Amino acid sequence: MAILEGFGCTLTERPKEADAVIVNTCTVIGATERKMLRRLALFADRDLYVTGCMPVVQMDKIRSVCTPHVIYPDEIRERAAGVGTRGPGATGVVQVASGCVGRCSYCITRFARGRLASAPAEDILDAVRALVASGAYEIQLTGQDVAAWGLERGELLPDLLQEIAKIPGRFAVRPGMMHPATVLGILDPLVRAYESEKIFRFLHLPVQSGSDTVLDRMQRGYAAADVVRIVDTFRDCYPDMMISSDFITGFPGETDEEFSQTLELLRRAAFVKVNITRYSRRPGTPAAALKDLPERIRKDRSRALLAEANRIYDSYNERWIGRETAIVATEKNAPGSTVCRNPCYLNVVVEEDLPFGFTGRAVITKNRRHYVTAELIPSDDEKV
Ligand code: SF4
């Protein structure tokens, strides 16, 4: 967007008003790919530009519905000054790296994004400083595998987090998705980096399966016991830490026994906030050669996993009820209501109009599964 504005373009989110339309594509699963193709077909008679992952790996599919101009993600990266950010606002986003060091057998993203390319630490620190100066309280660090940041240069994420935590100002960082195999290599320093109150006690650890044999077929590079070690190490230091995860159900050949190991790991690790995806064959990946399980099995297992994940989500929220916690306002919900975060990144809704960046204390009152409600505790100056 910044590059386009530099060219003198005026940006609009309403395609009807636009002289040219840009579609930023994703093809991570089959359903997303179909949605993208429908959207491209919709704009086929316009001055259409396509970017994102699809043109890198599925140009043939794009050409089957339209004949757009192509902007490859690498071109954007070359032209962009500094690191990719989104803001200003109460929440700012900083892209710390693209690509990964994985070789997951089901993944098409690695062909589109390529090998790990980390932004220089100084550029990231500058981007965080700029967002904080513009009023951001929550800074999200993003990448396919944030734990891998810097590895290609021998630098490590925990050192970057320590440097970010030294930046003056009132803000907190929400580290993005981290591959368990990469986390294992930096586990102790990473846990120490979370000591700073400028890092939300939140970890997104996509484990995909709890079965060692499925994890092998997925080429994930860790075992279920490694996941338990990561979770226990974090929770030993930070008992309330929110650890979320992603799972794929119905990977080719997944047996009932292998699936029950996944349920077991979900329970043992007590992941809060779980994304569940039914396995979807991606063209050109090693797993595409394997025989798919029937759709019904993939669906049933997703449902069973979701029911268990919801139960865990509820019990995590319920343990906060009646407790007092620090909060910061980051989002507007509806008039008379504000979305806040606590230090564990718990979604706390306060039935009051609070300005972005407001900090205070509140008592958690109710569990609404995807958030909790809370009542503000008046500050000492407001008490009579
Ligand atoms: S870590 Fe694995 S799933 Fe993630 S982008 Fe890389 S290859 Fe894909």
UniProtKB/TrEMBL annotation:
Residues 86-317 form the Radical SAM core domain. Keywords: 4Fe-4S, Iron, Iron-sulfur, Metal-binding, S-adenosyl-L-methionine, Transferase, tRNA processing. Its cofactor is [4Fe-4S] cluster. It catalyses: N(6)-L-threonylcarbamoyladenosine(37) in tRNA + (sulfur carrier)-SH + AH2 + 2 S-adenosyl-L-methionine = 2-methylsulfanyl-N(6)-L-threonylcarbamoyladenosine(37) in tRNA + (sulfur carrier)-H + 5'-deoxyadenosine + L-methionine + A + S-adenosyl-L-homocysteine + 2 H(+). Binds 1 or 2 [4Fe-4S] cluster. One cluster is coordinated with 3 cysteines and an exchangeable S-adenosyl-L-methionine. Coiled coil: none annotated. The keyword RNA-binding does not apply. Pfam families: Radical_SAM, UPF0004. Residues 1-82 form the MTTase N-terminal domain. It is an enzyme of class 2 (transferase). Its EC number is 2.8.4.5. The keyword Iron-sulfur applies. Catalyzes the methylthiolation of N6-threonylcarbamoyladenosine (t(6)A), leading to the formation of 2-methylthio-N6-threonylcarbamoyladenosine (ms(2)t(6)A) at position 37 in tRNAs that read codons beginning with adenine. NCBIfam families: MiaB-like-B, MiaB/RimO family radical SAM methylthiotransferase. Belongs to the methylthiotransferase family. CDKAL1 subfamily. This is tRNA-t(6)A37 methylthiotransferase.
